[in-house]
Amino acid sequence: MVTVGVLALQGGFSEHLSSLRKAAAHISSTSLSIPSFDFIEVRTPEQLARCDALVIPGGESTTLSLVAAQSGLMEPLREFVKVSKKPTWGTCAGLIFLSEQASATKRGGQELIGGLNVKVHRNHFGRQIESFVTDLNLPFLSHDGDGTQAAPFPAVFIRAPVVDQILTDEIGSIDDKLESTTPDLVVSASEDQGQAQAPKGRVEILATLPGRHASNRKAASASNADAVTQEVSPKGAGDIVALRQENVFGTSFHPELTDDIRIHVWWLEQVARSCS
After folding, report:
1. Contact (Cβ atoms closer than 8 angstroms) between residue 49 and residue 42
2. What does the chain look like in DSSP terms, one character per residue?
3. What is the pLDDT of residues 7-31, one digit of tens each?
4. What is the pLDDT of residue 42?
5. Between 238 and 116, whose confidence is greater?
6. Is the full-model pTM beyond 0.90?
7. Residue 93's closest CA among 130, 131, 62?
8. Hey, which residues are catalytic here?
9. CA 84: distance to chain centroid?
10. Neighbouring-strand partners of residue 127
């Protein structure tokens, strides 16, 4: 039995639980080699300790950080993600929470767990009314299949973050085309301060949203006057909206708000392999 927790402090945890249960049912109907899953809500360090893997849902990242600190979960979460290296998936605010750095934070900043050696830009596309749904090509959904391209995924972006910078020169991609589109976002580890405790391992780009990065200069300039922070791709290569570094997976968008369970199925299969 593999126990998967969903951090249930704030945000869309119930939607993730529903999608995970549907995904587990799908997996059990198609594969006899995958272990069974148990899904729990996580609000305490004791509940977290029961988990083999964790989902950190979307919501409001600053609130999520504050409630996690008040609940005594910040250090246990860091231990879970960065020391025990258990599979962890963050969506939207969860991606922010799992990043080493974030720009455009509220006054005073916010406490992060880390685990992904990247810098994200909060609310990159603007306010709630500027949310959108778009079909997104996700090569990783067909990577283990027969080579045919997976159908586009209906990606829901709500005050979504994107990756501003990759804070390491160890970068890869499930699709060579993705890797070649983002050279301007890579910051050598030697150029960045405080990297001694940064996560090790290759940052793997799993999906980009084409054309948004260069055109959305208004969102990029909403951060402070740091020229590096405001850097955008001059070629319109797109925003990084899904990535992985070792045990940590992050998406800018909300798969749990659709009826499409393919990403939940894919992630549970990754979890099952890591726990076998």
Report:
1. no
2. -EEEEEE-SSSSHHHHHHHHHHHHHHHHHH-SSSPPEEEEEE-SHHHHHT-SEEEE--S-HHHHHHHHHHTT-HHHHHIIIIIS---EEEETHHHHHTEEEEESPPTT-------EEEEEETTTT-SGGG-EEEEE--GGGTTTTTSPPPPPEEEEESS--EEEEESSS-EEESSHHHHHT-GGGB--GGGSTT-TTSPPS-EEEEEEETTHHHH-HHHHTTS-S-TTTT---TT---EEEEEEETTEEEESS-GGGSS--HHHHHHHHHHHHHH-
3. 999 989 999 999 999 999 999 998 7
4. 98
5. 116
6. no
7. 62
8. 92, 254, 256
9. 18
10. none
269 vs 211 pLDDT, higher one:
269
pLDDT tens digit sequence for 118-155: 999 887 776 676 788 999 999 999 855 556 788 999 99
Average pLDDT, the chain: 82
CA-closest candidate to residue 48, choices 40, 60, 59, 36: 40
